[in-house]
Design brief:
InterPro entries: FAD-oxidoreductase/Apoptosis, FAD/NAD-bd_sf, FAD/NAD-binding_dom, FAD/NAD-linked_Rdtase_dimer_sf, Reductase_C. One of its GO terms (cellular component) is cytoplasm. This is 3-phenylpropionate/trans-cinnamate dioxygenase ferredoxin reductase subunit. This protein has 407 residues and is an alpha/beta fold. The protein folds into 3 domains: 175 residues, FAD/NAD(P)-binding domain; 104 residues, FAD/NAD(P)-binding domain (3-Layer(bba) Sandwich), CATH 3.50.50.60; 70 residues, Enolase-like, domain 1. 24% of the residues lie in helices and 30% in strands. It has 10 helices and 26 strands. The strands form 7 sheets. Strands 3-2-1-7-19 form a 5-stranded parallel beta sheet. A 5-stranded parallel beta sheet has the order 9-16-10-11-12, with helices on one face. A 5-stranded antiparallel beta sheet has the order 22-23-26-25-24, sandwiched between helices. A hairpin with a 4-residue loop joins strand 14 and strand 15. Helix 1 packs parallel to helix 8. The radius of gyration is 22 Å and the shape is globular. The protein starts with 5 loop residues before the first strand and ends in a 9-residue tail after the last helix. It binds flavin-adenine dinucleotide.
């Protein structure tokens, strides 16, 4: 009887890296990588940055060269949505009704943009940004409109605003909270990004929501806001967050909370099914709770653990959450996770007005998270501070004459 393959569902970064890790860790059995997109696996961060700005092509975003999969004996199936997992018989079913056996299954189904739940939210000219095609369309749009409305002042919305301003487009960003990025950064540091965008000519409309997209024919021509005002725009980009693709896991009876629940080895409630990337809500040994991280580095790094677990090793994923963004001339990296109890102090080391600083979020004088803005090579020190859990002196932490501890 043929050996049952290791099957990976979701051909994004986490899926691609898992098959790479399986081969690197010595697995020489059959591997199938199944994705629903027409493209082989690619990375998404460039889609809202250099690919929109025109300084890189979409071709640069692929994880592997086209011949890598055949060369590593990976059976790559594109445009093949998986519709069902039948755990009792260890099979998946694809959209064409074909069933495939698995020995171990990796779920890396990622996440999808949350829709804008208002009238006109699906009109022509309303764009979401997740896939290569979306990036292509939004780049064309930026090249052809005078005024763009961005709904949602999160990371993707602000990156699109930055690219559009770079192309000379008038941009209005509508954000429900008092400041863009207030939810992930808090008001103290969100202000830095609001100022950045205001200085680059973006119109920020905060504390208001979009009540409906104004449509002429079936084309978006603007939006009506909750304060009764109207904004004219020739196109709309919606960036109001993403939701994990948990449908398959839920239907298969796996434990699902915010994402697919997993232990520190990324094993789900079924020991033959492992998760990685945006969809995984895994116990984090250092943070002492489950976290689901919707960021690139998590999809890049979890696969080493996921593959090892599939191969029967006893391993734990312990990397701290990490995120980066590039907007205009600002580059930022963020390590850590503030967590449900929040922070009680923010320390800024450097010049936040000049946008060259490291910020720390503290609770009980312990560092929960750190963000370096236009300051580089401090990531290891920031991570060491978080990992150590030691109490710090906020004044010394802010003092540029006092070196950051390195371990
Ligand atoms: C525009 C954009 C910019 C970003 N920028 C940054 C950034 O600057 N920094 C950062 O840290 N993070 C960034 N991210 C987040 C980062 O890209 C994600 O965290 C990462 O893509 C997650 O990888 P993944 O493999 O888990 O999921 P995904 O990349 O979502 O891949 C999952 C794949 O599985 C497929 N799939 C889902 N269901 C099925 C099914 N039933 N059958 C078959 N296939 C299925 C999906 O279509 C998709 O192709 C950005 C995301 C986007 C969209």
């Amino acid at each position: 009887m043929a050996e049952r393959p290791f099957v990976v569902v979701g051909a994004g970064l986490a899926g691609a890296k898992t098959v790479e890790e399986l081969r690197e860790q010595g697995f020489d059995g059959p591997i199938m990588l199944v994705g629903d997109e027409p493209e082989r696996p690619y990375e998404r961060p460039p889609l809202s940055k250099e690919c929109l700005a025109g300084s890189a092509t979409l071709d640069s975003a692929y994880v592997h060269a086209p011949d890598w999969y055949a060369a590593h004996d990976v059976d790559l199936r594109l445009e093949t949505p998986v519709t069902r997992i039948d755990r009792a018989v260890h099979q998946i079913e694809t959209v064409d009704g074909v069933r495939h056996d698995y020995a171990k299954l990796l779920l890396a189904t990622g996440s999808a943009p949350r829709p804008l739940p208002v009238p006109g939210g699906d009109a022509t000219g309303v764009h979401y940004l997740r896939r290569m095609d979306d990036s292509r369309r939004i780049k064309d749009t930026i090249g052809s409109v005078a005024h763009l409305l961005v709904v949602g002042g999160g990371w993707i919305g602000l990156e699109v605003a930055s690219a559009a301003r770079g192309a000379g487009v008038d941009v209005t960003v509508v954000e429900a909270l008092p400041l863009p990025l207030q939810q992930p950064l808090g008001p103290e540091l969100a202000r830095v990004f609001a100022d950045l965008h205001l200085e680059h000519g973006v119109t920020l409309r905060t504390g208001v929501t979009v009540e409906r997209v104004v449509v002429a024919g079936d084309v978006a021509v603007g939006a009506r806001l909750s304060d009764g005002s109207e904004i004219e725009a020739e196109a709309v980009v919606v960036g109001v967050g993403a939701a994990p693709n948990v449908g398959l896991a839920t239907a298969a009876g796996l434990e699902v909370a915010d994402g697919v629940v997993a232990d520190a080895g990324l094993r789900t409630s079924d020991p033959d099914i492992v998760v990685a990337g945006d969809v995984a809500e895994a116990t984090h040994p250092l943070l002492g709770r489950r976290v689901r991280v919707e960021h690139w580095a998590n999809a890049l790094n979890q696969p080493a653990t996921a593959a090892a677990t599939m191969l029967g090793a006893d391993v734990r994923y312990e990397e701290l959450p990490y995120f980066f963004t590039d907007q205009y001339d600002l580059g930022m990296e963020y390590h850590g996770d503030i967590g449900p109890d929040g922070y009680d102090d923010v320390v800024v080391r450097g010049d936040s007005d000049g946008r060259e600083f490291v910020a720390f979020w503290l609770r009980d004088r312990r560092v929960l998270a750190g963000m370096n803005v236009n300051v580089w090579d401090v990531g290891e020190a920031v991570k060491a501070l978080i990992r150590s859990g030691v109490q710090v002196d906020p004044r010394r932490l802010a003092d540029l004459d006092v070196p950051l501890p390195t371990s």
